[in-house]
Structure formats: structure tokens, C-alpha cells
Amino acid sequence: MAQYLNPQAQPSLDLGLCYRSGRELIFNYALLAAILGLNPFANLLSLTILLAGILTLKMIWDLGAEWRFVKGQGLLAIIGSFFGALGACVMGFMSWLAVIIASIWLPVINPLAISAALWTWTWMIGRTVNEFYLSGYGSPRSNVRG
């Protein structure tokens, strides 16, 4: 019990292993969001997007727990994460739009548009959060919360 109260008593993280396991976690959540986007009921789109948002928040929390909620990110990392989240929204929209435009010539893929958007959005948000926590180990001010 005392090792959890003292952050210095915890073993250090293997950054490569933590980064790879974070990517695997992101992949699993993005796949789940894409499956959620395959919802065949058009009138439940709001519920689908709400559930994808909740799923993304859970992914962010799990990534933070994987990195032990490391601190020490600078202002530049915080601003970069903001633009990463903004870019995730834009790229999610762009992937949706690309599938919609492609469905003009191949109408079979039209139901995949929401799934592609949710996959892209979740993947990019996860990668942004993973890089944010990784950047906490780059400065000497970083500490790990227990």
C-alpha cells in the first residue's frame, strides 16, 4: 500500500511498451467506434454520435491511466493537443465527405460514411492524446501521479 502513496517507489514506465500498448488501445476503440457507426437505423444518428463521444472520453481516460496521468507537458504540447483535436474533427468530416462523394459512383458504400468518420475521429483523437502523454517524459519537470 505504501508504494501507491509514494510516487518515487513506483517502477518507471517502459516508454516504448507504453506507446505501443496505447496504440493498440486506440485501435480497439477506433474499431469499436467504426462498428458503432454501422448503425443501420438512420433516425438514431444522434444516439450513435453521443455513444461515440462517450466512447472517446473513455478512451482518453484509459490512455491517461496507461501513461499514469503523467504531468510535465508544456504550453506547446497543450496547444498542439488542441489543434490535434481540431484536426481530428476536420479529418473525420473529410473522411465522411470522401465516402459520400465516392458513393455517387458506388452507392453500396454509402452506409460506411459515418463509420469512416467515427474511425478517423477516434483514431486521431487517440493518437493526439497518446503523443500528449508521451511528451510529458521529454521534460525534466515530469512526474508521475500514483
Question: Can you put this structure into words, describing what you see?
Answer:
This protein has 5 helices and no strands. The chain is mainly alpha-helical and 146 residues long. The chain is elongated, with a radius of gyration of 18 Å. The N terminus and C terminus are likely disordered.
Q: Kindly estimate the percentage of residues that lie in beta strands according to DSSP.
A: under 5%
Q: Biggest β-sheet: count, sense, barrel?
A: none
Q: Which structural class fits the helix and strand makeup?
A: mainly alpha
Can you count the beta strands? Answer: 0
Helical proportion, percent range: 55-70%
Please tally the helical runs, counting DSSP H or I stretches of 4 or more residues.
5
The span between the termini is 11 Å
Global outline: elongated
List the secondary-structure elements in sequence, H or E.
HHHHH
Radius of gyration of CA atoms, rounded to a whole number? 18 Å
Low-confidence stretches: 1-9, 139-146
Give the rounded overall mean pLDDT: 86
Q: Which key terms come to mind for this protein?
A:
elongated; 5 helices; disordered N terminus; 146 residues; disordered C terminus; 0% strand; mainly alpha
Short précis:
The protein is 69% helix and 0% strand. The chain has 146 residues and is mainly alpha-helical.
